[in-house]
């Protein structure tokens, strides 16, 4: 059951592993390694990308890649941190269509830049009457009264 | 016409999904060469609202994401909260959760089968499937108080118990539903016209299914053997006998077949749960949700629904991520419709089980003039069925 984790550790020695319970593993890696890690988990370990989550935290933007190893029912969540003054992460969309939409979504809601994404247009927010540069899920986002009329 | 590319817009309103979609079919003559998907017409900001609510309130919010699978989101959400808090609901609550969840799958699959029948011109299939779906909704009303939006789940357990005198009523409805669905399944799967109409249409290969990470009855007909209920056992799914339906063809016919066969598995699960329903409390008290994170996922009728909770130790989450199955499935339409005809496209788009209401809202423009309306697309699809029927001499 732990085979993928063992291999991941030897491939990415910098990883910090947190085991919440046997089926929920969190792997923190430097953001430069995300493409290699995602390719490793999807192509070599046969994992499915369930979804990604972005969070605005004190230290920066956390991007979580939830990979599901379906044969063991284990969730491997890969975490990378992008500092607030440089919120950039390499895009996975060019080689992995499953990451396409969610990267667009995280870009428009958090303002995280996914470098190399082929078509970074907004997914959910309006392309005509939503001011670009307003990121609704950032902690410093301020609601305006006119938003209710949209 | 051939050689010139035109756009057939489908949408933008798709009222039952959490996001209405707008499909732009790029066609050359009758052949679809590409597809563009636009989302967000009904983006309601659940992930924005959720951190303003307490853990007890959130299930009510996420229940309203979808009206058809309105048990899946609250279930995945409470599983995420419980995962974060590190608690398990009592066994009786696990069984009741499974019962409600499987009844929901039965009614949702019957709904899809009915609409698929309507779409290819088999209105009898539509009427029959919905007639037997009605019985399931009546059970819901009896055991949860509502035909939809059951509010069955709460963090730590379920809200309502199933009483002893309700069990025989549920079992008798299951008998009817199973018998009638069996008849319907035989009628649908043995019908040469339906076979000829649906086989080979909108094929999603296994490689494509894996690359797009599709889930549920969009993945399983393409040979991807995944089902959260079996892979990551929760509720009572590892305590009752049932099996996962996997096919290899990847076309619309296989998708219909998987859904029909899954109804019988769901009936088995509900029966197994009712037979072994343990006594005891239906709720574990949660005193606090400690700082940390939790992931909850379960198999909705359309595939895996995924919830992620980040807690800071207060009674509200810091972040709540929601991912519905159609989010992954709809993206795969881009490859599934390519190369098909317009008459097949709407069927293929619908085969991942988004809502059919969009077909009423379709409009195609050619040189700024309306070319197809929703009714025209329906007519195109029906005509093709008639052609197939004539060719087969039936």
UniProtKB/TrEMBL annotation, chain A:
InterPro entries: NADH_quin_OxRdtase_su_C/D-like, NADH_UbQ_OxRdtase_30kDa_su, NADH_UbQ_OxRdtase_CS. One of its GO terms (molecular function) is quinone binding. Its EC number is 7.1.1.-. It comes from the Bacteria. Keywords: NAD, Quinone, Translocase, Transport. It holds the Pfam family Complex1_30kDa. It catalyses: a quinone + NADH + 5 H(+)(in) = a quinol + NAD(+) + 4 H(+)(out). The keyword Cell membrane does not apply. Residues 28-145 form the NADH:ubiquinone oxidoreductase 30kDa subunit domain. Belongs to the complex I 30 kDa subunit family. NDH-1 shuttles electrons from NADH, via FMN and iron-sulfur (Fe-S) centers, to quinones in the respiratory chain. This is NADH-quinone oxidoreductase.
Automatic annotation (TrEMBL), chain B:
One of its GO terms (molecular function) is nickel cation binding. The keyword Iron applies. The keyword Iron applies. Keywords: Iron, Magnesium, Metal-binding, Nickel, Oxidoreductase, Ubiquinone. This is NADH:ubiquinone oxidoreductase. Residues 120-284, 288-361 form the NADH-quinone oxidoreductase subunit D domain. Its cofactor is Ni(2+); Fe cation. Ni(2+) binds at residues 66, 69, 355. Mg(2+) binds at residues 47, 322. Fe cation binds at residues 69, 358.
């Amino acid at each position: 059951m732990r085979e993928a984790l063992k291999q991941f550790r030897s491939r990415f020695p910098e990883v910090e592993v947190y085991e919440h319970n046997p089926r929920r593993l969190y792997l923190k890696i430097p953001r430069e390694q995300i493409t290699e890690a995602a390719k490793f988990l999807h192509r070599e370990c046969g994992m499915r990308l369930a979804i990604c989550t972005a969070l605005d935290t004190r230290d920066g933007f956390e991007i979580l890649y939830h990979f599901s190893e379906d044969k063991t029912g284990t969730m491997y969540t890969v975490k990378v941190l992008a500092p607030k003054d440089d919120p950039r992460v390499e895009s996975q969309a060019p080689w992995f269509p499953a990451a396409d939409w969610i990267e667009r979504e995280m870009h428009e809601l958090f303002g995280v830049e996914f470098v190399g994404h082929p078509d970074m247009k907004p997914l959910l927010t309006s392309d005509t009457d939503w001011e670009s540069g307003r990121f609704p899920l950032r902690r410093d986002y301020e609601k305006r009264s006119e938003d209710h009329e949209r | 016409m051939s050689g010139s590319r035109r756009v057939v817009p489908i949408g933008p309103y798709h009222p039952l999904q959490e996001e209405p979609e707008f499909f732009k079919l790029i066609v050359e003559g009758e052949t679809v060469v590409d597809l563009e998907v636009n989302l967000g017409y009904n983006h309601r900001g659940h992930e924005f609202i959720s951190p303003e609510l307490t853990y007890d309130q959130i299930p009510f919010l996420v229940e309203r994401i979808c009206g058809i699978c309105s048990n899946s989101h609250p279930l995945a959400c409470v599983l995420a909260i419980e995962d974060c808090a590190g608690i398990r609901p009592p066994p009786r609550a696990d069984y009741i959760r499974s019962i409600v969840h499987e009844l929901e799958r039965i009614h949702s699959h019957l709904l899809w089968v009915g609409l698929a029948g309507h779409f290819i011109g088999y209105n009898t299939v539509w009427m029959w499937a919905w007639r037997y779906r009605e019985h399931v909704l009546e059970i819901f009303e009896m055991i949860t108080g509502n035909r939809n939006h059951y509010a069955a789940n709460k963090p730590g357990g379920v809200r309502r118990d199933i009483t002893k005198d309700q069990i025989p009523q549920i079992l008798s409805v299951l008998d009817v539903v199973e018998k009638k669905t069996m008849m319907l399944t035989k009628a649908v799967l043995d019908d040469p016209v339906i076979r000829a109409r649906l086989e080979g249409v909108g094929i999603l290969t296994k490689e494509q299914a894996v690359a797009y990470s599709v889930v549920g009855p969009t993945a399983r007909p393409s040979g991807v053997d995944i089902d959260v209920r079996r892979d990551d056992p929760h509720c009572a799914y590892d305590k009752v006998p049932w099996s996962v339906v996997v096919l290899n063809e990847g076309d619309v016919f296989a998708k219909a077949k998987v859904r029909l066969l899954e109804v019988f598995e769901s009936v088995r699960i509900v029966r197994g749960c009712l037979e072994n329903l343990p006594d005891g409390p239906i709720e574990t008290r949660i005193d606090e949700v400690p700082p940390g994170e939790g992931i909850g996922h379960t198999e909705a009728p359309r595939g895996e629904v995924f919830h992620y909770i980040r807690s800071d130790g207060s009674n509200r989450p810091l972040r709540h991520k929601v991912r519905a199955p159609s989010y992954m499935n709809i993206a795969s339409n881009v490859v599934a419709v390519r190369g098909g005809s317009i008459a097949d496209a709407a069927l293929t788009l619908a085969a991942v089980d988004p809502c059919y209401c969009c077909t009423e809202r379709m409009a195609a423009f050619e040189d700024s003039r309306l070319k197809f309306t929703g009714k025209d697309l329906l007519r195109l699809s029906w005509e093709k069925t008639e052609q197939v029927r004539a060719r087969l001499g039936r």
